[in-house]
Amino acid sequence: MGLPRFCPRLLSCTLRTPNVASSLSVSTHLRVPGPVSQLRMASSTPRFAEGEDPQRLGLDTQSLLQQGWALDAEGMAVTKTFHFKSYFKAVSFVNLIASESSSKKHHPTMTVRIGSVDVHWTTHRPRGLTHKDIAMAQHCDNGAGLMGAVETGQGLKCGPSP
Ligand SMILES: C[C@H](O)[C@H](O)[C@H]1CNC2=NC(N)=NC(=O)C2=N1
C-alpha cells in the first residue's frame, strides 16, 4: 500500500492565506455536495423557542459552547461529537442517552461511528432551543465522562493501522 497521493490543486489552495474565501474554495475541492452558498456554517446566536427565558438559557448555552458544543446554522440546535476508544463504548454512550431521552420524552439525533457519536439537540414544537435541549446536552457531557470519552483525535478510527 503506497502513500496517499496529493491533489496539486488542493495543495495550492491550502497554501493560500487562510481566509474565509480560501476555506470555502478548499471545501469545494473536497467535493462538498451542492453550491458554495449552501455550505452550512455554525451560527453564533442561539434562537430560543417561544416561552423560554432567553436570559437564563443564554448563560447555560454559552457554557455549553465553551465545552465544545456548537450551534447549527440557524442557531436552533446544539451539536457535539463525542470520541471513544472502542465501538462498544460509543454504543454504550448512545444507550445511556437513549435511556434518559425515553424518561424525559425528548430525543436527539445521533450518528454512531466506530469511535465517535455525533449528537444533535433541538426542539420541534415549539420550534427552537429549549431548556430540554440544554439539560440533555449537559446530561450528554456527564454521560460522556462516565463512559470514558476521549479528546478529539484520540478516538478509535476505521482503517489500516499505521
Ligand atoms: C409527544 C412527545 O413528547 C413529543 O413529540 C416530543 C418527542 N421528542 C422530542 N424530541 C425533541 N428533540 N424535540 C421535540 O420537540 C420532541 N417532542
Automatic annotation (TrEMBL):
Annotated EC: 4.2.1.96
Reactions that this protein is recorded to catalyse: (4aS,6R)-4a-hydroxy-L-erythro-5,6,7,8-tetrahydrobiopterin = (6R)-L-erythro-6,7-dihydrobiopterin + H2O
UniProt entry keywords in alphabetical sequence: Lyase
Top-rank taxon, per record: Eukaryota
Enzymatic class: lyase
Protein name: 4a-hydroxytetrahydrobiopterin dehydratase
Gene Ontology MF terms in the entry: 4-alpha-hydroxytetrahydrobiopterin dehydratase activity
InterPro entries (alphabetical): PCD_sf, Pterin_deHydtase
The keyword Oxidoreductase is assigned to this record: no
Record's keyword annotation contains Cell inner membrane: no
Family indicated by similarity: Belongs to the pterin-4-alpha-carbinolamine dehydratase family.
GO BP: any one term: tetrahydrobiopterin biosynthetic process
